[in-house]
Design goal:
Blueprint lengths: L19 E6 L2 E6 L12 H10 L8 E5 L5 H9 L4 E6 L2 H13 L5 E5 L11 E6 L7 H14 E12 L4 H12 L3 E6 L2 E7 L2 H10 L3
Parallel strand pairs: 3-4, 3-6, 4-5, 6-7
Antiparallel strand pairs: 1-2, 7-9, 8-9
Helix pairs in contact: 1-2, 5-6
Length: about 220
């Protein structure tokens, strides 16, 4: 087992949940446990908040949504609360984060979530999700990031959407171009507080053409 303190590397679950944070979302209040060795241990980070605010209006009617790199589960739990008709699948490479996400779903009485530990959505069948939300692990490196996005494309249904939030100073413009090559399209939905929310839509003809014509 890796002993690194990076949030994107596997670490054993905590023996007990860490500090409980209160998060206000619209008219609701959530309680979330965090801990050492997970992303944003101090509470809901600005990027994830912007991702939720920007993407949620586009998700009406979706029935299966992925929270990729879920951390301790803030995005997935809010989605489950706001969209009780949908199934929310949360995944993270870090067992500690997944254990906290599962705990937080139970703590907030959210029944429509499933949390598992894995390498992104590599274990998910193709053409599964209506939408995927992701605050990706920039510090894990470009190779890891690209693998996460490639599997997102594979796992989305035709016309499914990927929503990703990335800091402008951490390569958001560059990743917009990479995602445009991968998906055949990528637009900026929002720019705020140093973050950009990117949206890609899976179109089988566009993504196939993009893959065939991408530089090797």
């Amino acid at each position: 087992m890796c002993t690194s303190s990076h949030y994107f590397t596997p670490q054993t679950p905590l023996s007990e949940p860490g500090e409980i944070h209160t998060v206000k979302w619209r008219e609701s209040t959530f309680r979330f446990a965090t801990g050492e060795g997970v992303f944003a241990k101090s509470g809901l980070d600005a990027g994830s908040l912007l991702l939720l605010q920007t993407a949620l209006p586009s998700l009406a009617g979706d029935s299966l949504i992925g929270d990729l790199g879920c951390g301790w589960g803030a995005v997935g739990c809010v989605l489950a609360h706001e969209m009780p008709q949908a199934q929310i699948i949360m995944s993270d490479v870090n067992p500690r984060a997944v254990a906290l996400a599962r705990y937080n779903a139970e703590l907030n009485h959210l029944k429509s979530t499933f949390c598992y530990c894995g390498d992104g959505f590599s274990a998910i069948a193709a053409d599964t999700f209506d939408a995927i939300l992701c605050n990706p692990p920039i510090r894990a490196g470009n190779e890891v990031m690209l693998r996460l996005f490639e599997n997102s494309l594979r796992c989305l249904k035709n016309e499914g959407r990927l929503f990703a939030v990335i800091r402008t100073t951490q390569g958001a413009k560059s990743w917009q171009q990479r995602l445009k090559v991968l998906f055949g399209n990528c637009e900026v939905m929002e720019i705020k507080k140093g973050y950009r929310v990117l949206r890609c839509e899976k179109n089988e003809e566009e993504s196939t053409f993009a893959a065939e014509n991408s530089p090797r």
